[in-house]
């Protein structure tokens, strides 16, 4: 008999670019409870579950909702909500208006923003954050979501024939015995973790060339203003006009080193020439940026996997949201350059694992 | 618009030739039109084309590197005994000196902008007289593009070689042959360039070539290497993406922008994500969390400088990270970086070094090469020259004919606005005999010949540069005077003076230009410059005269030594050796005395010596060793000066060693330097002494006294580059005592050299500054007897 946890149950992950919020909506509220439920709590529940968008930038990823989950003895649905980090003050303001501080709960938060906004939560919202380690939360979240599955489907999947638009298939992958695995979290930046067991992991390395770099460079190069717009442009562009390929230098494959002609020899290498700079479109530039960042992450992940002697690489993080170009490229590159030794895996809830982990921490702590 | 022949003359415009007033400067991508409006000066670049053969060319994105092999004819002084057959002619001199022509092999490398390629090819064609060459080896991305032009202009068939194979061949070659080729870069230390001692075994290593993309190659043996990885994020990404972001077209200008920018305005740092409290991850707040993370907004403008800086960091960090991951996987701790991204750019060397230190936590070292830009050309050349067996020889950098590191770096010469129109040169001389380590070195991998690193020690650098400047006039005068019969001697001496003066000015600005700056390198550079202007041995006549005078005194000195008892004789021998060492034309204080006091002799020199206790005095230990220990098996002596030094100082000492049962290997320089005794002079001197002295005579006959050459032509001594024959003999004879004599060999170099056997280092300090530094006065005596610790 665990100590009863007071609602509401939230998990918050405040990243460099996006805030991820998971909310457990209890569906087994008894009449007695309903009676007892204070107005503030009810209003929060209604607000979150009856909307799919909050303000101008908050979005609930309805398609990710986990239904009929049993958590800490309670049945309910898990909701996944995100909004830009720069709207954090508005979020705190809203919490203050909804008298969040009057509720018997702790707000568990992870990500760098848990530190950055701690003071604001205290002063503006009269709220004490419980700060949690982001890597602990990430791993906890991944393992939990994978174990409960995605409404009867597999959370984990991989791509078969990733480069063939006709034959490419997204197939479920059973992560029952997950260890060891390399976890690559691509947010604004990238963190790479080697996970050996539930609580034995290490941060192997990271790179500053991540989702923030893709989006940041796209803004500078194309004038786009949203991640979605950047991805949409990329989907219509041709990176081979921007990049210099092996075949552009050697006329074909570079056999001396076993390099295929299609491989990129120099990202943006063609842009050294004025004529070529003038002949490429914004879409081409967006595509090249996406390919550059994705290939680089693949390359670093592959080297880490080799150094750590791990052959399963799980990619997560919001960079992959609605970004099949990158996922398929990672799947292909990892397989090709490792000669089939490495497998790229993906998870449906991409960027929400830190927030899920924070929620789980809330329920674990007394 | 002028074109500068910017070879070694830092910042000095040599108006040797000029360009027509039309534009068309290359720079940047260099894919522009060819510039035909320059006239090249025949004797300054593309030298010795008359005898050139075996051409190779490496055409990169913007620079062309041409390599050829030529034979250089130059004068050498030869000494020869007079013919004694029959007549009893009494000669004033002990031997005759003749000047002869000698032919040596030299490798020439010239680097210039692609825009001048046509002019250069025309020039080569016009001056190429005597060659049976039919093909030119070509490598580099531009080899395709210029193939037809080269074949048409030169009438040679272009034979293409693989870029990476050439690069690695070239890399191995410089690693083996050029001292101080490798350096680590440390921006924030006093010495930006930390040159490395050449390790006897250069393999295995990782070569990371950052051209438009990045290639990571593991080199395991001379001909065994493997492409283990790469990255598409390289120099082309910096350039291409940089051009898009900043509208700045040239690579160098982008780097300039980057060096002025603040990346923190564009990058999202850890502290931007975490606010003030970022300690949790154990990360520093200034680390970049997301490159360009702050530019993810449509409504803000970013400065060109800041974006360029952010881009530079992003690319350097990424390359460094991948390089470390590959180094770790292959268990390597040395990474050499090359490619145009690195070439001569302190900015990128700095960021790459930072990145390697960060990602490897200091376990891997980022290393750079002085001649990195020439590797491809060297390799292509070697490919074509296999029948000449260049790898079987030892080669030496010719300081007179080489431009030095960063002769054209815009970062270091802000006055010089552009790298355009500059010609960089690198020359290597083939050494007659292979050079190896002295087998008696305690640890050849940590041996550093030079006592003071003048790149490190600004005070000492200033002193010595001034010292060499002040002595230059005298050196030039003596050089001219040494060839009284030559009509152009004065003119050549002036040219020599100008050239060496310019070298000294370059070294004032860029002390790292030729590796670690040392008194040795200053002396060697002077010798190279003298040779360049056909003054192979300015002191030959002086040496001849002094040898003659000293030989006449030899018997008297021996008689007086023999009259002493054993103990007195030992001290007299050492004093004689030291007094002999006063006669050094390389020391200004002495050359002044020698020029003014013609009667200055052995006894006068003895009177100049410091009284005991000497500045460094382990004479008592030496005497005890002689008294109590068994005689040494074999002594190796490195001699210093001609005349009184070798004849009245060294030979009596040798004679005593021989008499006590010790064999002696007497090592003298292969080629002339100052008034140092050369090997061929030592042979004649020994012959003359043998005629007067039975001990020397029988020792020579029985091969208990062996005369050998060092393989060097330097007034200093590098024990890691000695004649192979000497090294073999040292091993065969089980040498257990090394005697190093003179300021150049025992103080400027080897003062701290650790040997496996007993050693004596002795010298008279003939320079008041140096004496003061060591805590003494001019003519202080160093007598350092060392026994290796067990």
TrEMBL record, chain A:
Could you mention a single GO BP entry for this protein?
coenzyme A biosynthetic process
Q: What Enzyme Commission number does this protein have? A: 2.7.1.33
Q: Name one GO molecular function term.
A: pantothenate kinase activity
Any signal peptide, and if so, which residues? none
Question: Could you say which enzyme class this protein belongs to?
Answer: transferase
One GO cellular component, as annotated: cytosol
Name the pathway: Cofactor biosynthesis; coenzyme A biosynthesis; CoA from (R)-pantothenate: step 1/5
Keywords noted in UniProt: ATP-binding, Coenzyme A biosynthesis, Cytoplasm, Kinase, Nucleotide-binding, Phosphoprotein, Transferase
Query: Where does this protein reside within or beyond the cell?
Result: Cytoplasm
Q: Where are the transmembrane segments?
A: none
Which Pfam families does UniProt cross-reference here?
Fumble
Q: What is its main location?
A: cytoplasm
Catalytic activity, reaction form: (R)-pantothenate + ATP = (R)-4'-phosphopantothenate + ADP + H(+)
Q: What family is this?
A: Belongs to the type II pantothenate kinase family.
Q: How does it assemble?
A: Homodimer.
Protein name per its UniProtKB record: pantothenate kinase
Q: What is the lineage of its organism?
A: Eukaryota, Metazoa, Chordata, Craniata, Vertebrata
Per the record, the gene is PANK2
TrEMBL record, chain B:
Reaction catalysed by this enzyme: (R)-4'-phospho-S-sulfopantetheine + H2O = (R)-S-sulfopantetheine + phosphate; (R)-4'-phosphopantetheine sulfonate + H2O = (R)-pantetheine sulfonate + phosphate; (R)-4'-phosphopantetheine + H2O = (R)-pantetheine + phosphate
Q: What is its main location?
A: cytoplasm
Molecular function GO terms recorded: ATP binding; hydrolase activity; metal ion binding; pantothenate kinase activity
A GO BP annotation: coenzyme A biosynthetic process
Residue ranges of every copy of the Damage-control phosphatase ARMT1-like metal-binding domain listed in the record: 468-776
Which residue spans adopt a coiled-coil conformation according to this UniProt entry? Answer: none
Provide the alphabetized UniProt keywords.
Acetylation, ATP-binding, Coenzyme A biosynthesis, Cytoplasm, Hydrolase, Manganese, Metal-binding, Nickel, Nitration, Nucleotide-binding, Phosphoprotein
Required co-factor(s) are: Mn(2+); Ni(2+)
Q: Which family does it belong to?
A: Belongs to the type II pantothenate kinase family.
**Cited function:** Phosphatase which shows a preference for 4'-phosphopantetheine and its oxidatively damaged forms (sulfonate or S-sulfonate), providing strong indirect evidence that the phosphatase activity pre-empts damage in the coenzyme A (CoA) pathway. Hydrolyzing excess 4'-phosphopantetheine could constitute a directed overflow mechanism to prevent its oxidation to the S-sulfonate, sulfonate, or other forms. Hydrolyzing 4'-phosphopantetheine sulfonate or S-sulfonate would forestall their conversion to inactive forms of CoA and acyl carrier protein.
Provide the assembly information: Homodimer. Interacts with PKM.
Name of this protein = 4'-phosphopantetheine phosphatase
Natural source organism: Crocodylus porosus (Saltwater crocodile)
